[in-house]
## 1
Amino acid sequence: MRLSLPLTLLTITGCSPQGRPRDFPPPDIGLSQPQTIVAPGVPQLQGFSTAVKVGTTIYLSGQVPLDSTGVLVGRGDLAAQAAQVFANVAKVVRAAKGVPADLVHLSVYVVGYETSAVTVVRQASAQYVEPGVPPALTVVGVATLPEAGMLIAVDGIAVLRGQFPDRMRDRGR
């Protein structure tokens, strides 16, 4: 048995600055519809979305160490690739109207994982995350990534604190 309830949109009445009554429109139901995020300067791998935004949550797909022209950065250098990956992550979050400090979870995939990789990851991400409140972090060793020479990929989740970026928390990187 399926129960259907009618959807009722309420109109809220308030006062204008001049003291006259006015109606406020109902909330934008379209905010909960998934939106594909395309970030200028961040190459997309064919068949993958860069990110999807639903409401105020951004789901970032695996960001890889490609520069704005699609060229692999730092072949054989985990630190250089990690720096590029986190720069790409920041660009994607900004394209979705957030700031990197909105990141709440990161999964990092490292080819040939060694324990020293965690230090490299933390150093590369430090300039983008909120001091004192870093995102939950998972580092996973993998055998390979989508393209030869890639040593790291990062996916994550960001939760925006509002509909507009919080410039007070944005460290501009």
## 2
Amino acid sequence: MVRDWVLHTVGEAPYAVEPRDHDPVHRTSIDLGVGTILLAPSAPLGIECLPPAEALVLLDAWHEGIRELGAPFSGWAAISSVDPDLDGLADLLDDPALVGLQVPATLVGDPAALELATPVLRRCEQLDRPVLVHPGPARGASGSPLWWPAVVDYVAQLQAAWWAWFAVGRTLLPRLRICFAAGAGLAPVHHERLQQRGGGPFVVDPGVYVDTSSYGRQGVDALVRALGIDGVVLGSDRPYAALTDPGQGAAAWRQISRNNPVRLLQGEVT
């Protein structure tokens, strides 16, 4: 909940909201030159995990807010994880203001969970819309520092979701385009360890992407070495963390800020 402009979230320290960060004119000015700005609902809030009737009210407000913002803003849809409405999802993904579906990493955090979520993901695949995997609610840890959820919980969730996808995702969903936020917690960098432990060779999947949110030169360089430049798309954790130039040069910037996002969203570069 938000009380006196302070966001209180289970598992996280209170966060002082700066209203200016949510001003569309200001946001457009600071991200000038990146083209379309895609907004994602904050899955750590746990809205998707609420009882469906409660979740629907908040998710409807999110979708309506995206529609009202208009260009240069678009956004990711979100639906109840408890009782997903596949027909309602199809209606949402028919809306040009919504580019695809965001799911919490906690929903797809192991092969069995991913298999259970397959009907939702398959509907996105059938409609040729991508999926964004975003960290879900943090567990919190007693006595932990303020940065703990972002650096430990969320990273661990994304790594688990990445490995679940690696294990069974492409077999279940052969045509789905999927993106893991925050570099999938740098899970791609650990494929060397996978091979050492008998997991087999790593083959880059052209339909799988990671975004750069909260990572800079070192993190993005490691991801590019593991995935190649074509698997990386530009992202940020605004308002918690600003957009970072990964320092890969002009050609790489064009690739991660334009060409790769277009392929993620549309399946091709125009």
## 3
Amino acid sequence: MHIFLGFAPWIVFWILSGNDSFFEAILVAGIVALLLSASRFIKGKIKLLEIGSLIFFALMTVAAFAADPPWLEKWTHVLGNAALTVIALVSVLVGKPFTLQYAKEQVAPEIWEKPGFFTTNLHITLVWCACFVLQTVSSALTITWPHHETWFSWIIPTASFVAAIKFTAWYPEYRRAKYGQAPAQ
């Protein structure tokens, strides 16, 4: 369940950007990212997702002051979803899937070295990466076809996020049942 805390700044941003001003949404999401990162940093347990979130919201706050807010507001969901894609993809490319950090908090250390543990987290991270790619494309399509905003801004992103959550919960148990290895989380 801890992985979902890592998404808190993004969820705050998605909710507020639809109801409040763009700048307030960026600022509040940035504060949430800062609070999460600071508490984890103090404990020595800061996560890649939290670092990426902090960087994104800090850059967006600076850009909101320096750039044309209407342009930035128009493209911010595309940029945010692309940032999440990059975070997930880079974590895979460097051999440290971002879900691994969260999974290690859920299982005993002797399980960490089992090959199925890494593989399970790699697959889960790849599903999250696919989710973020779909959300990035969907956000871009909202700009191209605003008359389908309900689909591209709400239905597709929400369905992909829920699917990734369900997969994250289901897949470790599936692997354990199939291969007899300890679940990832």
